Amino acid sequence: MSKFKQLYKPLLDSAQWLAPEETVIEGTEFGHWLLELDSLSRRFERHCQAFTVSLEEQTQLSRECLTGDERALIGDVDCLLRKVVLKGDGVPWVYARTLIPLTTLTGQEQDLAQLGEMPLGFRVFTDRSARRDALVVANVGSEDRPVWARRSRLWLNDKPLLVAELFLQEAPIYKESLSWK
Ligand SMILES: C=C(O[C@@H]1C=C(C(=O)O)C=C[C@H]1O)C(=O)O
């Protein structure tokens, strides 16, 4: 089992999601990252020479495996599960887990199943219909050493997908000297 699966999946699974206004993130530097409504990949690109995605796993997930929360957000449907690690200059920055309902993988959106190592954000945010909502955040670390995660729903042509992201220790969001841009 890969390190990512072993360490990061349980962290994301344990997240107690909160609305941003219920947390301390607003007005902070890292808050600007967590609240990004546009593409996170595009923003990361501005903080490294080479932004890459490594595809850890892509499998089909039966609707019975969804949590109640997930069902409420994307429907009671079978999904494609995509797990990736986003890297800046080879350093792991984010572990991301995306649920793409099979009902979303229709028409123009069929290509979402074939992204491979192309960042999902590059595909989604070039589409004019793209939008993000239902954004929640969680600190899965401690108060002294926060490890931030967020979950949000993306819409493409009114079809949903659900992305959960865990911001790893080396991610630029923790670097105070870097202003958000
Ligand atoms: C959703 C975005 O895409 C990023 C890329 C992902 C992928 O390739 O699977 C997953 C989550 C995101 O952090 C984004 O850039 O905002």
Task: Tell me about this structure.
There is one protein chain. The chain is of the alpha+beta class. The chain has one domain: 3-Layer(aba) Sandwich (Chorismate lyase). 19% of the residues lie in helices and 33% in strands. The protein is built from 5 helices and 6 strands. A 6-stranded antiparallel sheet has the order 1-2-3-6-5-4. The longest helix is centred in the N-terminal third of the chain and has 11 residues, at 3-13. It is globular and about 45 Å long. It starts with a helix and ends in a 14-residue tail after the last strand. The mean pLDDT is 93. It holds the Pfam family Chor_lyase.
List the helices and strands and how they pair.
Elements: H1 3-13, H2 29-34, H3 40-45, E1 51-61, H4 68-74, E2 79-88, E3 91-101, H5 120-124, E4 131-139, E5 148-156, E6 159-167
Antiparallel strand pairs: 1-2, 2-3, 3-6, 4-5, 5-6
This protein binds the ligand C=C(O[C@@H]1C=C(C(=O)O)C=C[C@H]1O)C(=O)O.
CATH top level class name: Alpha Beta
Mean pLDDT: 93
**Largest sheet, strands/sense/barrel:** 6 strands, antiparallel
Look at the structure and name the CATH superfamily.
Answer: Chorismate lyase-like
Cofactors and ligands: ligand ISJ
Q: How many discrete domains?
A: 1
At a glance:
The chain is an alpha+beta fold. About 20% of the residues lie in helices and about 35% in strands. Strand 4 (about 130-140) and strand 5 (about 150-155) form a beta hairpin.
